[in-house]
Write a structure and sequence with these properties.
mainly alpha, Cytochrome Bc1 Complex, Chain D, domain 2, 3 domains
């Protein structure tokens, strides 16, 4: 009646209302209106406008459903929401669903049932936005899909769902979020910016350091866990914690199937996907990495991921032994590779 059939405020009542009804389709609405603010407005009304409160006519659940309908039908996520959704997907979801939304090689081979292929026609036909939000929030029984309602708020869950629907399911067109097309190719503007950054030689290498907190005692425990000596120097001979022994061959197989797309087959950060990533993947062969990464540090990086980067946390899908395997491969192949003389003596 007031906001219009299309949610844009162009209703018959518009001419007689001052201020006019809210246009939910505008960028301003996407930036200003959080879900909580909208629920409060529907409940109690908006002073100085024709928007009255509905708390006496509708239950809290009904009001929430109306708000979610408006947000899902008329409001596009803000740029901030889109970036947040992309970050969450890269860090949490891509481990199983893959960087292109079609299921990672490892997860498809090892998880039963396999993760959903968001790029398939079946996904687009079956998955409504509401169904996806529910699945992310509560998980799916008898699958590896956990619920994330205690880890992410409603807005963050909506953001990652909208990213998936735009980037992989192509519900809203061919162009994905943050200027990236659904097939993973950057827009021309983004490509030029990335090329310019590369020419400047910007170093975005992400090393596996984490904030362990706990003050001086926490720092001391962190140093001990990572094999630091009393002077703070990293012990490059430190073993994995809990007596783990990494299997080089098994780690190599996993690395080549899952890690090389970003970090490169040679550990030089020149994998085919590295072009699209900012900050850039860690360069394991750099002098800095070879001073800062021993086995425990690499193990932590693989397990916990890297905040603010597209390095996911693998501890949800890999066992500690599997993490030790790939960490062992990275350490021996790139951080402390065999010297040429040693290789020659083995021939």
């Amino acid at each position: 009646m007031c906001h219009g059939d299309a949610g844009d405020g162009n209703s018959r009542a518009r001419g007689g209302l001052n201020p006019p009804p809210r246009d939910f389709t505008s960028a301003k609405s996407a930036q200003e209106l959080t879900r909580e603010r909208m629920i409060a407005a529907v409940k109690t009304g908006v002073p100085g406008t024709a928007m009255v409160g509905w708390k006496d006519q509708m239950s809290d659940q009904q009001i929430a459903k109306v708000v979610d309908y408006v947000r899902g039908t008329f409001m596009r996520p803000s740029i901030t929401d889109e970036n947040r959704g992309r970050q969450i997907y890269a860090r949490v979801c891509s481990v199983c669903h893959g960087e292109r939304g079609n299921g990672s090689m490892w997860a498809s081979a090892n998880l039963k049932p396999s993760p959903r292929d968001f790029s398939s026609a079946g996904a687009k036909a079956d998955l409504t936005r509401d169904r996806m939000i529910t699945a992310v929030a509560n998980g799916r029984p008898n699958t590896a899909m956990n619920g994330y309602s205690t880890r992410f708020n409603r807005q963050e869950i909506e953001a990652v769902v909208d990213y998936i629907r735009t980037a992989f399911m192509r519900v809203e067109g061919d162009t994905g979020i943050s200027g990236t097309h659904a097939h993973g190719m950057p827009s021309s503007k983004q490509a030029k910016a990335q090329e310019k950054a590369a020419r400047k030689g910007e170093d975005h290498s992400a090393h596996a350091h984490h904030d362990h907190g706990g003050g001086a005692k926490g720092d001391e425990n962190s140093h001990a866990a990572h094999g630091h000596g009393t002077a703070g120097k990293l012990d490059m001979k430190a073993s994995f914690n809990e007596g783990l022994k990494g299997d080089f061959a098994a780690g190599k197989k996993f690395y080549e199937a899952n890690c090389a797309t970003c970090h490169g087959n040679k550990g030089d950060g020149q994998g085919p996907r590295a072009y699209f990533i900012n900050p850039k993947p860690a360069v394991f062969t750099s002098a800095e990495s070879r001073k800062a990464m021993n086995r425990p540090v690499i193990f932590d990086g693989v397990s916990l991921g890297r905040r603010g980067t597209e390095m996911p946390a693998w501890d949800k899908v890999l066992t500690k032994q599997e993490i030790a395997n790939v960490s062992e491969y990275v350490f021996r192949a790139f951080i402390q590779p065999p010297k040429k003389a040693d290789v020659a003596s083995r021939k």
